[in-house]
Amino acid sequence: MNIPSFRIMPVTASVVMLLVAGCASGSVSSGSVSSSSSASARPDPELADITVAALPAADLAGLYIAQDEGLFARQGLHVTIAPVASSQAVITAQLKGQVDIGAGSYIPYISAQAAGAKFRVLAEASTLHPDTRVLVTTENSPIVTVGQLVGRQIGVNGTNSIGTLLISVLLSDRGISPAKVRFVTDAEGFPAMPAELQAGAWSAAFLAEPYVTYAGEKYGERILADLDQGSALNFPIDGYVATAAWAQKYPKTAAAFVRAIQAAQLIADTNPTAVQAAIAKYDNLGPMVTTAMALSGYPTGPVNKAPLQRVALAMLEFGMLGRQDAAEVQQGTLTGSMIPPAS
Predict the structure, then answer these.
(1) Of 205, 57, 53, nearest in space to 128 by CA
(2) In the chain, which end has fewer C-beta atoms inside a 10 angstrom radius, N or C?
(3) Which of 13-27, 41-55, 136-150, 153-167 has the weakest average pLDDT?
(4) Judging by DSSP bridges, how do beta strands 236-243 and 101-105 pair with one another?
């Protein structure tokens, strides 16, 4: 497995402090996140304690950096990170008020929005970069080309998820119908999947970093296809999402969370060693994995409609949204409804 190299551009703690303080009086109104010029106001979130459900993946490095660097604490927040196997598992908990913010793939949220739920994307988390989401096979697998997956089972961490969408794009770009493979969900998610693949559960598996590197280091599993190519190049992956009702009820809490995440995203985007250090504390995979893993893109700034729209159009193309949703998707009103008005 190739070990990527990076140009390190450290972000100093003083820069982060200025970023956090500079928007300390930001507020959310009707689900929107904004900032003012006053740097003297102290954070005053309505909720001091919030729970964020998150996948254990490098895509969400901003979340883990914000936690470890005390960026949440500086905004008056105590954040509990609850690990989940897939973003789909979070939707029900959020709608029941059991989870404040979900961190993960946009796909289940767009599906839920189309079905009538109301969510708001508070901040973007990651975009696809080389080798960060891949298909892997065992070291001695007879499958050496994507075409040889026809008629085979592929392990994913969630059916009708970002994994199935990216693989569908890969197959389609090669003239292969996604219907010619079978997606099988592993309920335990990425941490368990390298061992399951090794045990013969499927012919190939969809993995995200740091589990791509772990699969290679631990079992010698090899990358069959990098999913950051063709029509999926730089594809939007994850975001930080709350229900519209939660964002409206707790605007100062939402704004405080966004300020901390934005400062952390800047660190993640410019300092690979900070990403590696943060992920190492949560994945329990050791330095050989976290120092070698490929890194995602970490967007900064207000939520952009274009990435969400790109995901929704791909979902429509590959049957993850129904014909009844076509007009809303094509007009952009479905994804537009998920973006805070000030973004």
Answers:
(1) 57
(2) N
(3) 13-27
(4) antiparallel
pLDDT tens by residue, 127-159: 999 999 999 999 999 999 999 999 999 999 988
Report the mean per-residue pLDDT for the chain: 87
Residue 189's alpha-carbon distances to 44, 69, 198, 313, in angstroms, are: 36, 27, 15, 26
Which pTM value belongs to this model?
0.85
Calpha distance 132→162 (Å, rounded):
13
CA-CA distance, 190 to 155, in Å (whole number)? 10
Mean pLDDT of 168-183: 98
Least confident of 28-42, 62-76, 88-102, 136-150: 28-42
> Nearest 5 degrees, angle CA 130-CA 278-CA 222?
35
Domains and CATH numbers, the chain: 13-129+235-336 (3.40.190.10), 133-232 (3.40.190.10)
Cα–Cα–Cα angle for 241, 300, 67, rounded to 5 degrees: 65
User: In this structure, what token pair is assigned to residue 77?
Assistant: 């927040």
**DSSP codes of every residue in 28-84:** EETTEEE--S---PPP--S-SEEEEEE-SSGGGHHHHHHHHTTHHHHTT-EEEEEE-
Three-class SS state of 159:
coil
Give strand pairing partners of 103: 54, 240
* Tokens standing for residue 135: 């298909």
Nearest to 36, CA basis, from 28, 45, 27:
27
Question: Omega into 10 within 30° of 0, i.e. cis?
Answer: no
> 53 with 93: CB under 8 angstroms?
yes
Sign of the Cα torsion 73, 78, 83, 89 reads negative
Lowest mean pLDDT among 81-95, 109-123, 129-143, 295-309: 81-95
What is the Cα–Cα distance from 119 to 117, expressed in whole angstroms? 7
